[in-house]
Amino acid sequence: MDVFASELAEGAFAIDVREPDEYAAGHVPGVRPAPLSELGAHLAALPADRPVYVVCASGNRSAWAAEQLESAGFHAVSVVGGTSGWARTGRPVVRGTDARAA
User: Fold this and answer.
1) pLDDT at 43
2) What SS3 class is residue 76?
3) Residue range 9-31, pLDDT digits in tens
4) What distance in Å separates the CA atoms of residue 79 and residue 3, rounded to the nearest whole number?
5) Fewer CB within 10 Å, N side or C side of the chain?
6) Structural domain that includes position 30
7) 3-state SS, residue 33
8) Residue 99 lies in a domain
9) Residue 77, domain member (yes or no)
10) Among 69, 53, 48, which Cα is nearest to 15's?
């Protein structure tokens, strides 16, 4: 989680693949919503020239999404522990839908 936090602080591109209600209930600051059910619709907005960090609640959905993104030619990194792990380390969680969509 420390590596992800450091990368995010340096401007890493990250998406949250949880559904909109889960995202609104609490997400990592700066992480854009890109629901797994709509992932294909977000591909054009993802950077092809740098890693895409993929977050979910615990790491299961993000691992699957990262595999799919890798298959599509992206360099995707699943964030192990997800938003739950982020919060457990005492890092802030934002509520609402104020982030830009990917």
Assistant:
1) 97
2) strand
3) 999 999 999 999 999 999 999 99
4) 10
5) N
6) 1-44+83-92
7) strand
8) no
9) no
10) 53
- The b-or-e profile of 44-71 (16+ CB within 10 A means b, else e) is eebeeeeebbbbbbebebbbbbbebbee
Catalytic hit among 54, 56, 57, 77:
56
Closest-CA residue to 65 (of 34, 97, 87, 25): 34
pLDDT in tens, 78-96: 999 999 999 999 999 999 9
Q: What residues are paired with 4 via a beta bridge?
A: none
pTM for this predicted structure:
0.94
Distance CA 19, CA 51 (A): 22
Q: To which residue do tokens 């401007």 refer?
A: 11
Query: How many structural domains are present in the chain?
Result: 1
Distance, CA of 8 to CA of 15 (rounded, Å):
11
